[in-house]
Description:
The protein has seven helices and nine strands. It is of the alpha/beta class. The longest helix is centred in the C-terminal third of the chain and has 24 residues, at 167-190. It starts with a strand and ends with a helix. 5-O-phosphono-beta-D-ribofuranosylamine is lined by residues 10, 12-16, 91-92, 112-114, 175, 178.
Amino acid sequence: MARTRLGVLASGRGSNLQALIDSSREGSMDADVVVVISDVETAQALVRARKAGIEARFVGPGPKRAHLSEEAESAIIDLLDESKVDLVCLAGFMRILSPRLVRHFRWRLINIHPSLLPAFPGLRVQRKALEYGVKFSGCTVHFVDEGVDTGPIVIQAAVPVLEGDTEEKLVQRILKEEHRIYAEAVQLFGEGRLTIEGRVVRVLPERSGDAGSDEHRS
Ligand code: GRF
């Protein structure tokens, strides 16, 4: 089976990007990050990509606050297409994508979000979870649709909210799970095991012969 070609969009720290790069290189995920694109020229994610020898591109987002300009979106689509990506991963990308971009990569675009969706969509959600007083939070990998944090859910992981938690402690506890499930979701996608029925993602069983085969793991 061919390895999955990933394009990653990231605006900041890039720890999820790093987890994808590490999983790829350690051989636990049969996918390679082939291009990283950021709307922030100084993003740590671009530094991480360059360090790993991966094409790293800054695309100026334009004047809008939450969205990208049309030109920026066109540039991003072109870069991803030129890199022949199979799957686009949003990893802390802080811009809302237009329906045009979402449609272009329909069901080939996933996001990682640090809450158990549909609880706490949006920003600073670990703080919101603490303030709300939930006893469990976690993270979600979902396909991206035209809404914000609304697409069909691929995988979730729950973590407890503990007595005396600070926002930073909860962020770190959730992040550890993010790094694990993002690579897992990419692997399931690459194995062709995700099907979408309405808004429900079904995970097909592993095909016999896939597990542990040299071809698959190399
Ligand atoms: C993560 O918490 C992710 O779930 C959210 O943004 C954060 C990005 O962190 N979408 P990093 O840049 O991957 O370290």
